[in-house]
Amino acid sequence: MTIMPRLTGWRRALAIILGAQLLFWCAYTLIIAGFQPVGTLEEYRLPAARALLASEPAEVGAYAAGLSGPAMLRIPGWQPVVLRPAQASLLSRAETSAGNEWSLTCRGNPCPEAATAYAGPFDRMDETAGREKFQRFDMVWLVVVTELMMGAALLVLLPVNGFSRLQCITGLLLISVGIDAWLTTFGAESLPYVWFPLLRYGVEYLMLTLAALAVNAFADWRSREAWAACGCFGVAFAILLGTMAAGVGFATIVPWLDAVALTLLLGYGVLALLRMGRTAPGPAIRVLAILLVALASIGFDLFLLPPPNGFALQASVLAPPLTMFGILFEIALQGHRLNQEAEEARSDLERQVLEQDASLLRSSRLLRHQERLLAIDAERQRLLRDMHDGVGGVLTHLLLDVRENRLTSREIEQGLQSSVDDLRNMASAIDAGNEPIDEALAMFQERMAGRLARSGITLDYRCTLPTPAPSLDVRRLLSLYRLLQEGIANSLRHASATRIELAMNPGDDGVILVILSDDGMGFEPERASGAAGEGRGLANIRRRADQMGGRIAIESAPGRGTQLTLAIPTHAAGRKA
Asked: Who's near 163: CB < 8 A, 6+ residues apart?
């Protein structure tokens, strides 16, 4: 059961690798074929071209393919001319012809075996030289600039990706590829020093070492393999140093080092593919296939590229820009997949958010319903307690006193009237709850004025509060009604008053002053405090004031009436606009 998926993964990986190799070599073949000139230059190849030069009517030029540096061309009957790599030069006729042999002499080192000299129409020579210049130098500059820019971009963007080891090694690898391309093509002329070969091949083996580290990072980083790759680089560099110290030319040792290094790198890449075949995702296989294309191009140039009759574009020069496009395609593909995954994640998140919102809405509705039920139950319990403590208590005492024949008809009437007044206070408080306090007390004055008028007492009402006036909740308003009811009852029972005044004035710090005064006989508050019966009068008034969170002041003197001043804070009461 577990073998078939692995075989399937191997087939997929092998198809990706072979497909990448096929695409690269097809592109390489098409480019080489596209840059081949129409026809050949064989008729202009020296020395056979000497016979055509005398009859050539147009400007005559010379060109040498495959030069590594300046060279002196001598043709009998023509002025000697200096030829440079990938450049055509005009030929001028000489007055005398010295000898019958032509020669091509390179400065410094002997000319390469593949160097071939041509002479003919200047336009044809210049066109061929321009083609070689593009293949040998312009393409290399394209590789150098591309690799350096991409490597620098990856290193600059390291903080964005959390200093990824893979990104860091890949950036260094691209930079080393650009430097190696420049050293291989332009380094010998730009750095004519004894140690230049050491620098050139040292950078080459450093590039191969970074390639091995990149493969290691793709295949799940292993420190031992990384140290082994660095150790191989150290051994190769030590061999180069020993060769240079012994005075032996690098040409005898470098081909063997190249073969060993490429074989080790290719074998390590295959082993990494074997390890990744079980669990590695498709992107890692595709990037590894791109690295194998680059290795194959280097091996082709070193071991399989036949000596050209003319210059041919090296595969290792074409590999970096093509692999760059492959990497960009991989990045674009991964970006598309990441966008799809992000879109799916966003849709799933939106669905979860909508479900969560619906659940919260249901919970909120249920919670509000429970709060309403609790508030209704609390209000019901409060009303029951108020009725039990107020009307119920008065009626219970009346019932007991009537059974014992302890009350006169006048006292029974007063008790029943007190119960009715308390019921009316409760109904009024519920009806006027959260209404402006001036309107609530105006309703209280209208209700009490008729009853007091039957007893020959006038009830006046005066309010100087600003509009809109503050409001009280039901509980505080009921306590205020009961406090005023108690004060009026005391005036009726004890003060023999003829006029009662109810006033509301603004106080300091948002306090409301409710003043109840009468013109009765008055009393001495100090002596009344603690006396028998005080608990049913002044004590009830003080208790009601405490329930409201207010302060009560009682001012009275014999023969001068009584005044109750209640200070009610409004910070706990809302305001109604």
From this structure: none
